[in-house]
Amino acid sequence: MPRTVMGKVSFAMLIFFVIQVISLIVVCFIDGFLAIIVLLYTTLITMPIFFIFGLIGLVKEKGNKKIIPLVVLVLGVIELILYLVIIFGYEFGG
Fold first, then answer.
1. 17-43 in b/e burial notation, b at 16+ Cβ within 10 A?
2. Which residue ranges does UniProt annotate as crossing the membrane (predicted)?
3. What are the domain boundaries of the chain?
4. pLDDT tens, 4-33?
5. What's the pTM value of the predicted model, to 2 decimals?
6. H/E element holding 77?
7. Nearest to residue 47, comparing CAs of 19, 85, 4, 76?
8. For 38-79, what is each residue's pLDDT tens digit?
9. Which residues of 56-89 are buried (b: 16+ CB within 10 A; e: fewer)?
């Protein structure tokens, strides 16, 4: 468990990511296109938050406690890549 406040906020963002993934899986069973739209909106909001708290938590934490902020930062990068692939990689009816 992280010791600093930013490390704990990074841990909260990690829990938020898990909730986001679970809700996205539920929406996938309802409608696939709705899942893409929900993914685009939530990624656009959470991606900068993951970057900010991941970087600050990585700077503030020391030793083995840097794992959670590093995971949050990596998740932010994955969300950025996923967002760009969906926006520029797919052609909807074109």
1. beebeeeeeebeeeeeeebbebbeebb
2. 9-27, 33-58, 70-90
3. 7-89
4. 888 889 889 999 999 999 999 999 999 888
5. 0.83
6. helix 67-89
7. 76
8. 888 998 888 999 899 889 988 888 888 888 989 999 999 999
9. bbbebbeeeebebbebbbebbeebeeebeeeeee
